[in-house]
Amino acid sequence: MHRLVVFFFGWLLCQPLVAQEAPLQVAGATTVNVMQAKHLHDHGALFIDVRPAREWGWGHVEGAIHLDLRWHFASLAQVPWPREVPLVIYCDSEVCAQSAVAVEQAVGWGFTRVFYFRGGYFAWQLFDMPSSKGSTNERLALSSPDP
């Protein structure tokens, strides 16, 4: 019995370490695959990477802006853009639920053309789509100009 209790508590402690699959859809948004995301990319949609800075530095969709979900994504709510601007939001893969959370927030802030790129950056890389590495220039799209 003691072993069972120890096993159960050990299992509970490890649960946060288990990857959780991202939802298939988010209400108010359109889920897109890598080919649909590429089409949106080619037509000027704004790609937003919500991964941590370390992962952004390893590589990201070319032309994307970095708004780490934990630290910077909420600033999107205050941006005075038309709410019809097409946003493609992604993280690393189908086991990253951060993009789903970000998509839900963007829809809640009134953005009407939100695309949930569930496959994320790993799918983008797998299909050898245009990528950038280590650059922070794209992030300037939401930054205030220096005085």
Automatic annotation (TrEMBL):
Please list which residues make up the signal peptide: 1-19
Does Nucleotide-binding appear among the keywords?
Answer: no
* Keywords on record: Signal, Transferase
Instruction: Output the superkingdom of the source species.
Output: Bacteria
Ion transport: is it a keyword of this entry? no
Q: Which InterPro entries match?
A: GlpE_sulfurtransferase (IPR050229), Rhodanese-like_dom (IPR001763), Rhodanese-like_dom_sf (IPR036873)
Q: Name one GO molecular function term.
A: transferase activity
SUPFAM superfamilies, per this entry? Rhodanese/Cell cycle control phosphatase
Annotated Rhodanese domain residues: 41-133
Q: Supply the PANTHER family for this chain.
A: FAD-DEPENDENT OXIDOREDUCTASE (PTHR43031), PYRIDINE NUCLEOTIDE-DISULPHIDE OXIDOREDUCTASE (PTHR43031:SF1)
What is the name attached to this protein's record? Answer: Rhodanese-like domain-containing protein
